[in-house]
Design a protein that fits this description.
With 467 residues, this protein is mainly beta. It contains three helices and 19 strands. The protein has a 17-stranded parallel beta sheet, with no helix packed on it. A two-stranded antiparallel ribbon has the order 18-19. Strand 18 and strand 19 form a beta hairpin. InterPro entries: Leu-rich_rpt (IPR001611), Leu-rich_rpt_4 (IPR025875), Leu-rich_rpt_typical-subtyp (IPR003591), LRR_dom_sf (IPR032675), SDS22/Internalin_LRR (IPR050836).
């Protein structure tokens, strides 16, 4: 049996090779390429982000495991960890799990994150008395089990097919049911601790039932619903973060008198943007056919423009001296303005952008992601001050195989060793490959670039760089 004790006192290697390599990196403390029973029992934390693990057979031997974190794997069955009674945290986001094992020994479980899987139902939660945080968003759930007798403080169940919610636990502080099919609010009358409520993207036509939590809510998101009337937000004294909009209203009341830090606003039939609060640090303008954007607050630190297909030009932003993060996705622009000096993160995806902006003055820039645009040249990237840059991604553009472009990418590869991912589909189909490097002390996957270039379709053959 995999995970059983061999004659020499070690564990039999598990059948999944990727899992075994990760276990060796975490548990083989004497570097003898094996795992003893003592080493297995000493392991309390398993983390492997982006590891293509398929089979967890053999994990039964790690009886003192308290944290199991396998993000973006290929696991479909959690049965091998069902008997690990010391588990407090299970995070298996982005796998292929269709059901949770029952029975299980997870009586000490405090956090369960199974978001981004294939769950169609959940077992009853009575066997998990310590469960504080449940994350089941992005699954295929049509209903939730009884929750009123649990001790949950955080429930994330967004992007399923829920038409109603069961009675909720009194200790809930955060509820996120974004992207479902709710037509009415759940009963909030007993939720005296609730401060965050996310209702965006449902089928709500009215927001009846907010009164019991009105005074305490700090985060309220209701955009993306067919609301015909909006609440008077001036009666929410603690509100700092707001998702504001309706899919059927052409105008929204101005909110420039609210003391907000974060705001998401939009609507498909809006004829004008509302006046915005002046003190915003984060602003997302979304999901509108408007051709302009409102005046941007001067203290803005993060700006997100998304799903604005008729926005022909990005707003001027050089004077936004606090702006560090700029994200533009699915917007109809083909040029970027002069970017602000303090910019750290730049993301532009799914636009008609066909020319790189001036990077020379951006000494703070660290991460650049320009995927799925219409860029035809890369040489402007050579202007980047390389001291802080850790990641560049220009996947799926139209950059041809030219000497200048090859020289630019070779220069960047020399300057930026970690975290570089370059993949372009042009006339000659560049494919810059990257591999995860496991066994590091970091909890997130570190990517080590390969200096490679394929002039044909992607495949398993070895590659050489622009020679």
């Amino acid at each position: 049996m995999f995970g059983s004790v061999l004659f020499g006192g070690g564990l039999d290697p598990v059948p999944d090779g990727v899992l075994w390599e990760r276990l060796l990196a975490l548990a083989d403390t004497n570097d003898d390429s094996s795992i003893s029973v003592t080493e297995a029992e000493a392991l309390t934390t398993f983390t492997c982000s982006g590891c293509p693990v398929e089979d967890l057979t053999g994990m039964e031997a790690f009886v003192n495991l308290e944290t199991f974190d396998l993000y973006a794997g290929s696991v479909s069955d959690l049965t091998p960890i069902a008997g690990l009674s010391a588990l407090r945290v299970i995070e298996v986001r982005g796998n292929r799990i269709e059901g949770l094992p029952t029975p299980n020994a997870w009586s000490q479980l405090e956090k369960l994150d199974v978001s981004g899987n294939r769950l169609t139902s959940l077992p009853g939660l009575s066997g998990w008395p310590a469960l504080d945080r449940l994350e089941v968003d992005h699954n295929r759930l049509t209903q939730l089990p009884t929750l009123a007798d649990t001790h949950l403080s955080v429930l994330r169940c967004g992007f399923n097919s829920l038409s109603e919610l069961p009675a909720l636990p009194a200790g809930l502080t955060s509820l996120d049911c974004t992207g479902n099919q709710l037509t009415a609010l759940p009963d909030l009358s007993q939720l005296t601790a609730l401060t965050q409520l996310h209702l965006s993207g449902n089928q709500l036509t009215e927001l009846v039932g907010l009164e019991p939590v009105r005074a305490q809510l700090t985060h309220l998101y209701f955009d993306g619903n067919p609301l015909t009337q909006l609440p008077d937000l001036r009666t929410f004294p603690a509100l700092t973060s707001l998702g504001y909009g309706s899919t059927v209203l052409e105008t929204l009341p101005d909110i420039d008198d609210l003391d907000l830090a974060q705001l998401k606003v939009g609507g498909p039939v809006l004829t004008a943007w509302p006046d915005l609060p002046p003190g915003l640090s984060l602003l997302q303008l979304c999901c509108s056919d408007l051709t302009t954007v409102p005046a941007l607050p001067h203290e803005l630190g993060r700006l997100y423009l998304s799903h604005l297909p008729h926005l022909a030009a990005a707003p001027e932003m050089f004077e936004l001296s606090f702006l560090t993060d700029l994200t533009i996705t699915r917007v109809g622009i083909d040029r970027l303005p002069i970017l602000p000096l303090e910019l750290i993160n730049l993301t532009v995806w799914d636009t008609t952008l066909d020319r790189l902006p001036d990077f020379e003055h951006l000494g703070q820039l660290r991460r650049i992601s320009l995927r799925n645009n219409r860029l035809t040249e890369a040489h402007a990237l050579a202007q980047l001050p390389m001291g802080n840059v850790t990641s560049i991604n220009i996947q799926n553009n139209l950059i041809p195989n030219s000497d200048q472009n090859c020289e630019t990418m070779a220069y960047i590869l020399e300057q930026i060793t970690p975290n570089l991912n370059y993949q372009n589909q042009g006339d000659s189909n560049f494919f810059w490959q990257y591999l995860p490097r496991w066994g590091t002390e970091q909890e997130v996957t570190v990517f080590q670039p390969m200096r490679t270039l394929d002039l044909g379709p992607p495949g398993p053959a070895p590659y050489t760089i622009c020679d």
